[in-house]
Each structure stands twice: as C-alpha cells, then as structure tokens.
Write a structure and sequence with these properties.
This protein is mainly beta. The protein has three helices and 13 strands. The strands form four sheets. Strands 5, 6, 9, 12 and 13 form a five-stranded mixed sheet that branches. Strands 8-7-10-11 form a four-stranded antiparallel sheet, with no helix packed on it. A two-stranded antiparallel sheet has the order 1-2. The two termini are 25 Å apart.
C-alpha cells in the first residue's frame, strides 16, 4: 500500500477514488456469571503485563489501555458451519491507539498519516528508525463467525509488537521517538491480509507474542472505540528457539528459558486458537499464518 500524506481519512478517500480448541470451554461460562477479566501484555523488560503496568520510562498505563479485555463468544455458528472465536485479550499498556498515555500525552497512531501499510519494520512520518531482526511475514485470514464463518472481506486489523530487544515503540526507553512495528491493513475480499515485520523478542515475564485489533472496516480503524476484537497470538516454541539462536536475540534466550505457556498470564489457559502456523527458517525469514474468527 502506498505511503500517505494526509492521514487515514485522506487515505480512505483516495482509495475510494481509485478503486470503485482454545477457550471454547475456558471462558468460565457459569450460568448468569460474567467472565473473569484477563490481564496481560506489556512492553520492555522494565514492564509488567497487567492493567496499569509501568513501561520502561516509568509511565503507568491507564485503565483504558486494557479496556479491550472482556468476554467473547466461544463459538460462532452460521447456516453452513461453525468456528471457534479467537479469545479476547488485553491490549496491554502499549497500544498507541488513543486509549492511554505514553508519558508525554495520549498517543494515537491510528489517526496518523502512513499507518496504513503492510511493511511495518520502519517508522513512518517524522520518525526515521527501522527495527532490525529476523524477517517475518504475518498472514491473517479473518472470518466472521456470525456469517457461517465465511471470509470477512473488507475488515481491517491494527497490529503491533515489540522489537527484538523487547521494547515497544513510542513507550519504551530509547524508542519513544519511533513508531515502528505498528500498522493497519485492510483484508481483501477473501478476508486475507499480511504484514512484513521482524520476529519479536521475548522480554521478561511474557512468551513471545503479537497484539492486534480487528475492525469492521478500514474507516472504523481510525478510532479504537470501533474495535470488535482485541487479541494476541504467539509462535511455536521450536521456532522461537531457532530465531533466538541468531545474532541480536541473546536477551530473548535468557528470558524465554524462564517462561512457558503454562506460566504466561495470557496463554496459560490455552493457546490453541492463538498459535500461528510457521514456515521458513532463520536465514531466509519466516511466515506466520493464523485464521482469526470474530463475531461481527
């Protein structure tokens, strides 16, 4: 997708002018009882993965940063099929979607020019840094569990994750002036979209993971208030070990050795629906593929 100069609203108008089972039974579904909230996600090694977590610069995330947690439908059914809906997870303290502050004020990349892009390795706008690491292509297939689990064409995804050092752009010390590893993409008619990025590092207290929010349309992705799903996905342990054996990921080796899916505060109740299928290798890069079922 081309680089844009006037923000998401202008991007949308330009497009219009130029082109006419995890938690299926783990949601604590007691009759009449509300599901327990899930805490999770954070940033660099100085952070904790919880609502109100503190980032590496000492900033405390507002409750709004975890407003994406909550209950979700475990399964969706339609006229010709059913599918397990990906679990709702916390967006954590580093979403940069307008729901919290990074210490200098509310930060929102969703309204910034250039955020709609497939290659998220470099910062956009006035920022000029590029995240280094093992190449990773993320391919998401979005389906609507409320429509017979068919392709959710035209839906949009905002995706973000830490760099190979475990830092989150705009929040973590040393990268507050960067906005790399964040971007928005619109699914095609088949519900498919892709991001070009780097394999995220493993910071203390969390298994490697990627955050994302799903929106019904690209236009709605300009405001976090419109998100219909916030979740996270992870990678097979074997792939993580392969990546972290390469240069630049030494800290991740130590952190990963101290963690497991069983002790992770997001994936400990199961991660079958959030485990990407991997192909590739550490030399040439990897492709992570995941089907994401949402209710819309």
């Amino acid at each position: 997708m081309e680089h844009h100069d006037h923000g998401l609203a202008h991007d949308l108008q330009a497009m219009l002018n130029t082109a006419a089972g995890r938690r299926q039974s783990l949601r604590w579904l007691f009759a009449g009882a509300a599901a327990l909230p899930l805490l999770g996600c954070g940033g660099s090694s100085a952070s904790t993965d919880s609502a109100g977590a503190t980032d590496s610069s000492g900033t405390t995330g507002s409750a709004g940063s975890t407003g994406s947690t909550g209950t979700g439908t475990s399964t969706g059914t339609g006229a010709s099929g059913s599918c397990a809906v990906i679990p709702e997870e916390t967006g954590g303290p580093y979403p940069a979607d307008g729901t919290n502050s990074n210490g200098g004020g509310v930060v929102n990349v969703l309204t910034q020019s250039g955020v709609v892009r497939s290659d998220i390795r470099a910062s956009f706008g006035a920022a000029g840094g590029t995240a280094a690491g093992v190449p990773l292509t993320i391919k998401l297939h979005i389906i609507n569990a409320n429509n017979a689990c068919t392709a959710a064409g035209g839906f949009a995804v905002y995706l973000w994750h830490c760099d190979r050092d475990g830092n989150y752009s705009l929040y973590s010390s040393g990268v507050t002036n960067q906005n790399y590893l964040r971007g928005v993409q619109e699914a095609d008619a088949n519900g498919d979209l892709a991001f070009t990025t780097i394999f995220p590092g493993c910071y203390a207290g969390r298994m490697p993971h990627v955050h994302f929010e799903v929106y019904r349309t690209l236009a709605k992705a300009a405001s976090a208030a419109n998100r219909i799903k916030t979740s996270q996905f992870t990678f097979p342990l074997a792939t993580c070990n392969e990546v972290y054996a390469t240069a630049g990921y030494a800290t991740s080796v130590r952190n990963l050795a101290q963690m497991s899916f069983a002790t992770d505060n997001v994936f400990s109740d199961g991660h079958a629906l959030q485990l990407a299928t991997m192909s590739g290798n550490a030399s040439d890069g990897y492709v992570a593929t995941l089907t994401v079922a949402v209710v819309a």
